[in-house]
């Protein structure tokens, strides 16, 4: 990437501010997805010009080490050469056909190599769609209507899952969403993550027999919260006993926390799995699937309707396939990703301790959160005890120091294979200043993360 200046002044540069003032007149809140507005950290967004590897450059020429990585999609970093080349080659043959194309099978083979439990699956365009379809399928298969999700779990913005949701819903401090009929979420029960008793209570609730429990196997949309030992296996046992399906929403964790995601890392087999983000290599692609006897119900084979004009788009398939090919052929990839994550987490803990900032750094391979909380965070209730004013100061200082950190306490930071020693060192230097700012008592009335936009 061409040379750029390191951020010096506080806040976005002049070009970013100009573009943002125009965007405010065109998009609600000036953004096309809520957390991008930076409201929870009391700042204004910078506008991105381009990315290369671990680095971003904004329209004012400032450079940042990126820990958002398109919200986790870019496990190889920005503009990976092989991925871009695959996209270019696919595009030259046509942008889409709405008909079968060889690239759908190419990506399917790679996905099934890493997720052998996906006996059948279908491509869709977003994680939201994947989850929505998986729930419809689970309800049809079991003949039951009630579903169980976890408080702080985020599964996209389908109506039925906007109850105590994480990600942007948590960031905006909303209990759910306006516009969702009470009847639609009446069949959605919530349990506490890492608390099997609360799951058992939901499964036995008078609300009716449960069709499915859906879980992010590593919670990532209330910040990064690893599963307690035995939690995922406990979910498997409880659901099996009640003849409810277990759905792993691996839209974030798939191909991130291990090649075969949580299924491989924790050795627990769900009935259905949803994938997204990394599997599209940066382009819009997602999937849902699992046991063949369940997927048999999907139209045209069965009575559960689900369709997509752009599903299996060849350019997106090509980007996903190039990404997975890299992850498969590079044998040391996850060992390096894990060790970079551990080094960053440990460096952040030491920087926080030196600055006297009270926080918990929680991580699993390739994902990480700094919670400004006094106790380890195990669920949504714990996540909400974090001092979001301190997080906001931490975030603003990082940005000023050239580190693009997710602009919410409730979003995980991601690493890619492109985050090498230099990027980590720069991050830890910036973190020293950011923790000092977080620990400091003086601040100009930091915004509450829960402030309604
Ligand atoms: C990002 C995410 C989704 C939603 O995916 P979209 O592509 O944004 O619709 C669903 N579930 C999880 C766990 C996610 O992280």
Instruction: Note the main sheet.
Output: 7 strands, mixed
The count of helical stretches stands at 15
CATH class of the largest domain: Alpha Beta
- CATH fold call of the largest domain: Aspartate Aminotransferase, domain 2
- Sequence of strands across the biggest β-sheet: 5-11-10-9-8-6-7
SSE order in H/E notation? EHEEEHHEHEHHEHEHEHEEHHHEEHHEEH
Structural class by sheet pairing and helices = alpha/beta
Describe this structure in words.
α12 (333-355) runs parallel beside α15 (421-439). The chain has helices at 14-26, 81-92, 102-114, 127-142, 167-171, 182-185, 196-203, 231-241, 261-266, 292-295, 314-329, 333-355, 380-383, 388-400, 421-439; strands at residues 5-6, 48-52, 55-58, 62-66, 120-124, 146-150, 188-191, 210-215, 245-249, 272-275, 286-290, 360-364, 367-371, 403-404, 413-414. With 453 residues, it is an alpha/beta fold. Strands 5-11-10-9-8-6-7 form a seven-stranded mixed beta sheet, with helices on both faces. Strands 1, 2, 3, 4 and 14 form a five-stranded mixed beta sheet that branches. The chain has a three-stranded antiparallel beta sheet with strand order 12-13-15, with helices on one face. 54% of the residues are buried. It is globular and about 55 Å long. The chain has two domains: 14-66 and 332-438, Aspartate Aminotransferase, domain 1, CATH 3.90.1150; 81-329, Aspartate Aminotransferase, domain 2. The structure holds pyridoxal-5'-phosphate. Residues 126-128, 131, 154-156, 216, 220-221, 249, 251-252, 276, 286 line the site of pyridoxal-5'-phosphate.
